[in-house]
Automatic annotation (TrEMBL):
Residues 55-100 are annotated as: Disordered. Part of the 50S ribosomal subunit. It holds the Pfam family Ribosomal_L4. It comes from the Bacteria. SUPFAM superfamilies: Ribosomal protein L4. Belongs to the universal ribosomal protein uL4 family. The lineage of its organism: Bacteria, Bacillati, Actinomycetota, Actinomycetes, Micrococcales. This is Large ribosomal subunit protein uL4. GO terms for biological process: translation. One of the primary rRNA binding proteins, this protein initially binds near the 5'-end of the 23S rRNA. It is important during the early stages of 50S assembly. It makes multiple contacts with different domains of the 23S rRNA in the assembled 50S subunit and ribosome.
Length: 219
């Protein structure tokens, strides 16, 4: 069953209301699925450029560092051996791709599950406009977000072309901004409150209800 929430303007006054579709904002939260998707997303973000030098790659001569017998020391064959100072590294990290294959249905289901969790906690907010008189105002937006989402980490979802709202938000500490088509489970998980602009909310709902008749994975 869909629930409705208030839409407020930049001054904090109610101007409208919108429904939260149950197929997006009221599904079962599958924690293991969300964990798998978040781990895969974080792994894909790794550069994987770490590298260590093997014994064949470090500088140094190939000769024996000292003679085989008569020194009282353990015999050594090369100054590039791992046990020698400046020698190669054994089993060290080398460049690799950390990305994992994650089905699109799992990614979508994880996002629905995280959004549903925030919705049940009344952590979803919709703002009609993040500007006053069509002008950017960081001070106004900061006061508004403090009043409706006083948490430490806030995620604001905008439309790509909404440059005025972006200018109002981008310098605020603890506030992360995404466009509606970039919204993902990880950014929802690490955010306490999710604030949509009205345009971004409508676009997000329209985009995610197109395939509502297709087979879904429990979120």
């Amino acid at each position: 069953m869909a629930t409705s929430i208030d839409v407020i303007d930049a001054k904090g006054k109610k101007v409208d209301s919108v429904e939260l579709p149950a197929e997006i904002f009221d599904v079962q939260t599958n924690v293991p699925l969300i964990h798998q998707v978040v781990v895969a997303q974080r792994a894909a973000a790794r550069q994987g450029t770490h590298n260590t030098l093997r014994r064949g790659e470090v500088s140094g001569a190939g000769r024996k560092p000292f003679k085989q017998k008569g020194t009282g020391r353990a015999r050594q064959g090369s100054i590039r051996a791992p046990q020698m100072k400046g020698g190669g590294i054994v089993h060290g990290p080398h460049p690799r791709d950390y990305s994992q294959r994650t089905p699109k249905k799992m990614i979508a289901a994880a996002l629905r599950g995280t959004l549903s969790d925030r919705a049940r906690g009344e952590r979803i907010h919709v703002i009609d406009a993040l500007a006053v008189d069509n002008k950017p105002s960081t001070k106004t937006v900061s006061a508004l977000l403090t009043s409706i989402a006083p948490s430490k980490n806030v995620l604001v979802v905008l439309q790509r072309e909404d440059a005025i709202s972006l200018k109002s938000i981008r310098n605020l500490d603890g506030v992360h901004v995404l466009s509606y088509d970039q919204l993902n489970a990880y950014d929802v998980v690490v955010s306490d409150d999710i604030v949509f602009s009205k345009g971004a909310f409508d676009a997000f709902v329209a985009f995610n209800t197109k395939s509502s008749n297709k087979e879904e994975v429990s979120a």
